[in-house]
Design brief:
- The chain contains 17 helices and 14 strands.
- By secondary structure, it is an alpha/beta fold.
- It has two domains: 140 residues, 2-Layer Sandwich (Enolase-like, domain 1), CATH 3.30.390.10; 275 residues, TIM Barrel (Alpha-Beta Barrel).
- Strand 6, helix 7 and strand 7 form a beta-alpha-beta unit.
- Helix 3 packs across helix 4 and helix 7 runs parallel beside helix 8.
C-alpha cells in the first residue's frame, strides 16, 4: 500500500496571446498547477496540470470572474491533495476513486453550484493524478510509460507510431490568413471551433449562420492544399461544437451546407454537437460524431456509443490519465476509434498526451497517429514554457511541417515525463 506523508500545491498564471474563444466565451489566461507528493521513504514527485474552467464547466466560468473560477478549481486541487494524506492506495485508480466524491461536494459548496460537472472535478485532479502515477512508478521501480500501464489496459495502447500529425486549433478569432499559413506549413487536420455567439445574445439562428459562413471561408482556402498524411490526400476537418447546438435539425442544416460546398466528406469528426444532458441519438448524421465533455467515465462512454457516437476524445491531460485509461479500454472493446485532444496545456503535459496518442490506433482517414496540440498558437510565453521541459532540446518537442517526429529516444525516455523539471521543482523548495 502507498501512503502519502507530505504534499504541497502551487500554480503559475500563463497569459494567452489573445482572447481564446470557444463555447461562446473567451479565456485570457490558463493556470498551470503543480502538486508535490512525498511518501514515507522520502520519494518525492511533482505532477502538473492545466486548468480550463470554461472547457470543464462553462456554467462556473460565466457565473464568476475568470480569476475566481480558476481560484475555485485550484482550491479543489488543494482540498483533494489534503484528503489524499488519509488514503492508503495500491494504484492511482484507487486514489482517484476515493477522492472524487468528497472533492465534488467541496467544489459544489465553494462554487455555489449544486450541478457542477464531473469534468470540472477531473480537471482539478489532473496534477494530483499525474503525481500519483509518478509516485506509483517510483515505488515499483518503473521508468517507462509502457511498463507503467497495467496489463488489462495495454491492448488499448498497442500501436507505436513514429509520427503524430498535429491537430491545430482554429478558434473563433483565428483569421483565414492564419489558416492559410498553417496549411502552407504542412498542417493537414484542422480542429475548427463552431458554436459562436457572434452578437452575444444567445441567438442560435445567428450562431448557425456564423458557423456556415466560417466553414465556407476555411474550406475555400483548404481545398487548394493537399497532404501526404491523409488517405484521401486532402485537408481534413474536425468540427468541435462544445455542446452549443440544440437540435438534430440544426446540425443537419450545417451538414447540408457542408455538402453543398464540397466539405462534407472532409469532416471526419464532429465533436459534442449537443449539451451533455442531451440524449439525442446521432446515428443518422452523415459524419462520425465524437464525445468529449459528455464522456467522463466508462459508463458515459458506453452510453454515448449506444446513442450513435462513433469516436471518443481522450483527454489524459484534462480528465486524468486514470480515467482516460479506463475509457480507452471500453472504446477498444467496442471497436470505436479514439484520439487525444488538447486543453491548451504546457509542453510537459503535451508529452503526457503524446505518450497515449502514440499508442492509439490511427483514426479512419489518417495514415498515422494524431494528437491535438495548440499551446504554441495560444500562449504568450510558449518559448519560455518549452525551456521548462527536462528534454527541452529534443526534436520530438516541436512539430515539423505539422508532424511530431517521435523516434526511438521519445519511447526510451517516455517523452521525459519521469524526469524532473528544474523550473517546477523550484515551486517546492526542499
Amino acid at each position: 500500500m502507498i501512503r502519502i506523508k507530505k504534499n504541497d500545491c502551487n500554480f503559475e498564471r500563463e497569459a494567452l496571446l489573445a482572447p481564446f474563444g470557444f463555447k461562446g466565451g473567451y479565456l485570457s489566461e490558463l493556470w498551470q498547477t503543480a502538486v508535490m507528493l512525498e511518501d514515507g521513504d522520502k520519494r518525492r514527485v511533482i505532477g502538473l496540470g492545466t486548468q480550463s474552467v470554461l472547457w470543464s464547466d462553462a456554467g462556473v466560468f460565466t457565473s464568476h470572474p475568470e480569476s475566481a473560477g480558476n481560484s475555485m478549481m485550484f482550491l479543489a486541487t488543494e482540498f483533494a491533495a489534503q484528503k489524499a494524506l488519509s488514503v492508503n492506495w495500491d494504484t492511482p485508480f484507487d486514489l482517484l476513486k476515493a477522492l472524487i466524491p468528497e472533492t465534488c461536494e467541496f467544489a459544489k459548496k465553494i462554487s455555489r453550484n449544486p450541478d457542477i460537472r464531473l469534468t470540472f472535478i477531473l480537471n482539478s485532479l489532473v496534477a494530483l493524478d499525474n503525481a500519483a502515477w509518478l509516485l506509483y512508478s517510483r515505488t515499483k521501480e518503473i521508468s517507462s510509460f509502457d511498463d507503467m500501464i497495467p496489463e488489462i489496459y495495454k491492448p488499448a495502447l498497442s500501436a507505436r507510431h513514429d509520427t503524430l500529425v498535429t491537430i491545430p486549433l482554429i478558434s473563433y478569432g483565428v483569421s483565414v490568413e492564419s489558416v492559410r499559413s498553417m496549411l502552407a506549413d504542412g498542417y493537414c487536420f484542422l480542429k475548427i471551433k463552431i458554436g459562436s455567439d457572434p452578437e452575444k445574445d444567445g441567438n442560435l439562428d445567428k450562431m448557425l449562420e456564423w458557423d456556415m459562413r466560417r466553414l465556407s471561408e476555411i474550406h475555400e482556402v483548404a481545398e487548394r492544399f493537399e497532404s501526404p498524411h491523409t488517405e484521401s490526400g486532402r485537408i481534413l476537418y474536425y468540427l468541435d461544437a462544445n455542446g452549443r447546438y440544440d437540435s438534430i435539425k440544426r446540425v443537419e442544416k450545417l451538414l447540408r451546407h457542408a455538402k453543398k460546398i464540397g466539405a462534407l466528406e472532409r469532416i471526419i469528426i464532429l465533436e459534442e454537437p449537443f449539451p451533455e444532458e442531451d440524449n439525442t441519438n446521432v446515428s443518422d448524421l452523415l459524419v462520425r460524431v465524437a464525445a468529449d465533455e459528455s464522456a467522463h467515465s466508462e459508463h458515459d462512454v458506453e452510453e454515448r456509443i449506444a446513442l450513435g457516437y462513433r469516436a471518443i476524445a481522450l483527454k489524459p491531460i484534462a480528465k486524468t490519465l486514470s480515467m482516460s485509461l479506463k475509457m480507452a479500454k471500453i472504446v477498444k472493446e467496442k471497436n470505436i476509434p479514439c484520439f487525444c485532444a488538447d486543453l491548451t496545456v504546457n509542453p510537459i503535459l503535451v508529452d503526457w498526451n503524446k505518450n497515449v496518442a502514440a499508442r492509439l490506433e490511427r483514426l479512419p482517414g489518417m495514415k498515422t497517429g494524431v494528437v491535438e496540440s495548440n499551446g504554441h498558437q495560444n500562449y504568450k510565453n510558449w518559448a519560455a514554457m518549452l525551456s521548462m521541459h527536462p528534454c527541452r532540446d529534443k526534436a520530438w518537442l516541436s512539430p515539423v511541417k505539422g508532424v511530431f517526429k517521435l523516434g526511438s529516444e521519445f519511447y526510451s525516455r517516455s517523452g521525459g515525463i519521469y524526469e524532473e523539471s528544474g523550473h517546477y521543482a523550484k515551486l517546492f523548495p526542499k
